[in-house]
Amino acid sequence: MRISANNKGMALVWVMIAMMIVLNSIVVGSALLVNTSNILSSQMEYYGEAPSIAKSGLFDAQAYFRRQTNQPVTSFNPQRDLEAIPIVNDTDDPTIGIVRELDVDQSSHIYGRYEVISSTVIDTSSQRGFPGNGTMWYIESMGYIFLKLDPSQSYNVFPNRVVACICLGTEIRRVSMVLPAQSALCAGAPSQTIIGKNTKIIGNTKCAIAYPPDLGTPNIHNEALVTGTPATSLISPYYDSCDAVFGMSESELRSIADYYVTSVSDLPSPIPDYKIVFFEGNASFNFSIPLKGTGIFYITGNMTIAANSGSSYNGIIYCKGNYHQRAPSTINGSIIAKNQLNIQSTGDISEVNYDPNVLQQVQTYTGQYRFAKGFYEVK
After folding, report:
1. pLDDT in the model for residue 59
2. Cα 377 to Cα 379: distance, rounded to the nearest angstrom
3. Residues in CB range of 162: below 8 A, 6 or more apart
4. Where are the domains of the chain?
5. 229, 330, 338, 343: which has the highest count of C-beta atoms within 10 A?
6. Which spans in 68-207 are helix H?
7. What are the φ/ψ torsions at residue 363 (nearest 5 degrees)?
8. How far, in Å, CA of 96 to CA of 102, rounded?
9. Phi and psi based region of residue 26 (left: phi greater than 0; alpha: psi -120 to 50; beta: remaining)
10. Which pLDDT score is estimated for 83?
11. What pTM was computed for the model?
12. Given CA atoms 27, 32, 36, 39 in this order, what sign does their dihedral have?
């Protein structure tokens, strides 16, 4: 059977059409593959930014709690009033909670957004065994990375599109400070307490030296100046555990401390104001490394302030081991010593001065809300 030339021509045309369709399919498929690959690559690139955005929300929430006038904070109610004096700008959307949007890569229209939704911020004080409200709060923060193609639309409304999101949770808590007594010295082992000459222990309108019952009395040199209302006082009950004083266990205090160190050389000098130092082991301060700063100094071992160190500290010193202080040195606030307490001088003055104003400032600024645990993903 013979095939005509016309039929051959038509067959060739159909073959060419088929080849064009196949080629076009390949081109379109390749373009789709590249586009999909670019989208996946973009998602992978910016997905790692989502936790950082969520963390920003947690830090913003902590700042909200810290700046409230009434402490502890008993309600979570972010506000926005740009016409108020001073302006109130806790959030971009008070109907949600704390909300902010951030520029991640404007050239690629990539933005970040965090939401600390009011309904997920919960006062957990009673669940944690704290009396009253506002000591501990649970906080969640949603972190979004989104493509903003139409600024007039919400972050999740087409053509805008969420690229990645994550929810992080944590807890914040205040640090309570309940001294065994309102006293310059809280001596847990009174029979091992020695107040030598050239020493001043000033209680002002409060007690100079407080101590528990049935453990003897402090040994006070007749040339020491110990004054207060009263000068010495037996306190019963006398609570000086870490839990009783700071409202948390030693491990919890360690976890929220601004500085956790095992050597005095690891501490800045002076220690920045209103910081918590958790010192593991024994510490000795001298002329080269004096003790200077304001805040809370918690030490698990022995603490020595050597002669001629020129140390001056404001706040609370809590010493689980033996505490020795020599001149010239001044502590304004209160010292809680669990064991031997020895303050003496051979020339200059060693002084401990109960200062309620210093203690109030430490309570206000050092006791502010702190993260009680690390950030974790909420599924």
Report:
1. 97
2. 6
3. 144, 145, 146, 147, 155, 156
4. 45-174, 183-366
5. 343
6. none
7. -60, -45
8. 17
9. alpha
10. 93
11. 0.80
12. positive
Cα separation, 27 vs 44, whole angstroms: 25
Q: Using CA atoms, how far apart are residues 292 and 272, in angstroms rounded to an integer?
A: 9
Residue 81, CA distances (Å) to 55, 67, 68, 92, 96 in order = 25, 16, 16, 10, 15
Which pLDDT band holds residue 105 (cuts at 50, 70, 90)? Answer: confident
Condensed to tens digits (0 to 9), the pLDDT of residues 25-82 reads 555 555 454 444 555 555 556 667 899 999 999 999 999 999 998 989 999 999 999 9
What sign for the dihedral angle of Cα 267, 296, 245, 215?
positive
* pLDDT tier, 128 (very low <50, low <70, confident <90, very high otherwise): confident
Query: Which residues does residue 269 pair with via DSSP β-bridges, in sequence order?
Result: none
Give me the pLDDT at residue 347, please.
Answer: 79
Q: Which residues lie closer than 8 Å to 274 by C-beta, 6 or more apart? A: 294, 295, 361, 362, 365, 366
Cα–Cα nearest to 96, from 57, 55, 69, 65: 57
Task: Note whether 285 and 263 are within 8 A (CB).
Answer: no
In whole angstroms, what is the distance from residue 182 CA to residue 33 CA? 73
Please state, in angstroms and rounded to a whole number, the distance separating the CA atoms of residues 197 and 292: 24
